[in-house]
Amino acid sequence: MDIMLADPNRDYKGGDLVTPEIDGTRKYHQLQKGDAAFFLSHKYHNVLPITEGKRMVLVVELWSGPERVCPHRCWSRGVCQRKVGENSNNTAGAVAAAAENGWLLG
User: Fold this and answer.
1) 98 contacts 105 by C-beta, under 8 angstroms
2) Phi/psi at 79 (nearest 5 deg)?
3) Beta strands in 21-80 (DSSP E)
4) DSSP 3-state assignment of 65?
5) What is the pLDDT of residue 64?
6) pLDDT reported for residue 38
């Protein structure tokens, strides 16, 4: 959950939250001060660059179920089937996959 603490009309410019749609397009969300956005944080998302000022957001993550210890984005519930040291089981692999799909900026 992201709760917008700043006023986009006064405190900053840019910084829209971007989420993927089922059809492959992206949806842009400009949160107003006091708005809350709820989404699965382990799914791809990003924020557009801040072009001016300061964007302040309170981020709250709520989890249930077994603790995850793997550094990648598990797509299914249950025990992770990947072994430590596998190429796709590292942060660099997750970053490369996100970049390949256009979810990293800069």
Assistant:
1) no
2) -70, 135
3) 26-29, 36-37, 46-47, 50-53, 57-59
4) coil
5) 74
6) 92
Beta bridge pairs of residue 52: 13
Q: How far apart are CA 105 and CA 48, in angstroms?
A: 8
Q: In Å, how far are 3, 5, 54, 70, 91 from 43, measured between CA atoms?
A: 18, 23, 25, 15, 15
* Predicted confidence band of residue 93 (pLDDT cuts 50, 70, 90): low
Domain boundaries of the chain, sorted by first residue: 1-62, 66-106
CA distance 34 to 45: 20
Give the model confidence (pLDDT) of 9-52 as tens digits. Answer: 999 999 999 998 889 899 999 999 999 999 887 788 899 999 99
